[in-house]
Amino acid sequence: MVILESALAVAALGGVWAFGVEPRRLMVRRFSVPWPGVPGSRLRIGVLSDLHAARPHMGEGRIRRIVARLLAEDPDLVLLPGDFVATGTVGVAPLAPERIARALAPLARGRPVFAVLGNHDWDLGGEPVAAALEEVEIRVLRNEHLRLPTPFGELVLAGVDDPVTRRDDLARALAGTEPDEPVLLLAHAPDIHTAAPEQVRLLIAGHTHGGQVRLPGLPPPVTLSRLPRRQAHGLHHDRGRHLLVTAGVGTTGLPLRFARPPELVVLDLVGDGTRGAVAAAEPVADPA
Questions:
Q1: Which CATH number characterizes residue 48's domain?
Q2: Which domain covers residue 154, as residue numbers?
Q3: All residues at 6 or more sequence positions from 208 whose CB lies less than 8 Å from its CB, including other chains
Q4: Is the pLDDT confidence value at 7 over 50?
């Protein structure tokens, strides 16, 4: 009886943590990736994914605080891998795209910001989300690329529309680039990594939430990705290419997280000759 009561007490505490505490935490994860042709230079990229903006955990005030924390890292460029809106999450009050965009607007003051749409954005038809983001000068990439001037020279940045709803067209996104030209690709879901050619030196994606729920020491039971579960989160090196999957900051399905707290990513692209290294996650207190 004592063992049963103890087990129930632990389960209750775990539930309180998963629903009430962990979704409101925030981590900053730092990575470094070598980039060809830019010796001695660095480009700092901030990555904010999977807002699933909805009260109680991801209201406008919380988004603004997360934005302020990312801006404190002084990024040269900000990338947003989709799923701005909340659809299909139990017990939450979703925010309208216009309110989400206004909360994100400070990101675009003084630096370029690019986004792609996710499957939940397309649940609302896609276009209202894209229009709201463009209104605050966040450029939405739709199967296209551009050559972006940066502090360390020109960067070829490509973005595909949502792979989950099969709106991605990688060939169209890369059309006009040279086969040996290194490309940074932004996508909502990481599965497109297996189809990307060698010139895609870095793919940045979200969607998986890192599993959102996992038991410490074990891979997440659900990732919503066909990639190996170990690739559902973090930075992975594969034959000279890199895959970065962020757990994002929001929740879907149920408004909970366990052993996979919300996170921002700060990624430094550095000149060749510098090995890619994964820095330890830095816990950051969220004032929410």
A1: 3.60.21.10
A2: 2-284
A3: 189, 190, 220, 223, 224, 225, 232, 233, 245, 247
A4: no
Q: Per residue in 184-216, pLDDT tens?
A: 999 999 999 999 999 999 999 999 999 999 887
The 3 state secondary structure assigned to the chain is CHHHHHHHHHHHHHHHHHHHHHHHCEEEEEEEEEECCCCCCEEEEEECCCCCEEECCCCHHHHHHHHHHHHCCCCCEEEECCCCECCCCCCCEECCHHHHHHHHHHHHCCCCEEECCCHHHHHCCCHHHHHHHHHCCCEECCCEEEEEEECCEEEEEEECCCCCCCCCCHHHHHCCCCCCCCEEEECCCHHHHHHCCCCEEEEEECCCHHHCECCCCCCCCCCCCCCCHHHCCEEEEECCEEEEECCCCCCCCCCCCECCCCEEEEEEEEECCCCCEECCCEEECCCC
Structure tokens, 138: 């966040």
In the numeric block, the tokens 């903006």 are attached to 53
In the chain, the number of structural domains is 1
* Structural contact between residues 44 and 268, judged by C-beta atoms closer than 8 angstroms: yes
Encoded tokens for 135? 């209104």
Checking DSSP bridges between strand 234-238 and strand 241-245, what pairing results, if any? antiparallel
Predicted local distance difference test score (pLDDT) of residue 219: 82
First to last CA, the chain: 39
Which residue is associated with the tokens 């990024």? Answer: 75
